[in-house]
Design brief:
two-stranded parallel ribbon; Endonuclease III, domain 1; mainly alpha; 2 strands
């Protein structure tokens, strides 16, 4: 039997996410934007709730084309608020548009968001020793620094806890439990 992190429930969508995505290094700017927006949308909710709505988010947010999202106007925001397939929180939706604009500025400054964000970990995943997921912190000094920098640049829904979850999701941090088959070996 395959050993997975103990947080991974039997829900097929959760298992697929754990096995194929969580902790895998992402260097694609579109995928990084998607995960940043989805982690922000999760605030106050379960990740499974967001996962189950992800395809709706992709449809609603033009497959997370940040150039298009940055151009969304009030009319588009109102349309999104009425979309029952996504989390209809006005602040989170407006934040996605604002964050897309800042995302473009970061890409212009650094050449890519990938180069910017992975620079915080010197381009290499941090591999933590985790026996049980309850040991995992909700934030770290690095997530604090990323959060602080993104906020200074004007982003919302990028608190340190959200950023740490983002870092785990895109493989900047490996917090798979030691007995999990996905654990990176150092």
């Amino acid at each position: 039997m395959v050993k997975r992190c103990s947080w991974c429930t039997a829900d097929p969508e959760y298992v697929k996410y754990h096995d194929e995505e969580w902790g895998v290094a992402v260097h694609d700017d579109v995928k990084l934007f998607e995960m940043l927006i989805l982690e922000g949308a999760q605030a106050g909710l379960s990740w499974l709730t967001v996962l189950k709505k992800r395809n709706n988010y992709r449809r609603a947010f033009d497959n997370f084309d940040f150039t298009k999202v940055a151009k969304y106007d009030d009319s588009k925001i109102e349309e999104l608020i009425k979309d029952s397939g996504i989390i209809r929180n006005r602040l989170k939706i407006k934040s996605a548009v604002l964050n897309a604009k800042v995302y473009l500025e970061i890409r212009e400054e650094f050449g890519s968001f990938d180069k910017y964000i992975w620079g915080f970990v010197e381009g290499k995943a941090i591999v933590n020793v985790v026996k049980n997921y309850r040991e995992i912190p909700s934030s770290t000094p690095i997530s604090d620094a990323v959060s602080s920098d993104l906020k200074k640049r004007g982003m919302n829904f990028v608190g340190s806890t959200i950023i740490y979850a983002f870092m785990q999701a895109v493989g900047m941090v490996d917090d798979h439990e030691e007995n999990c088959f996905k654990k990176l070996k150092t």
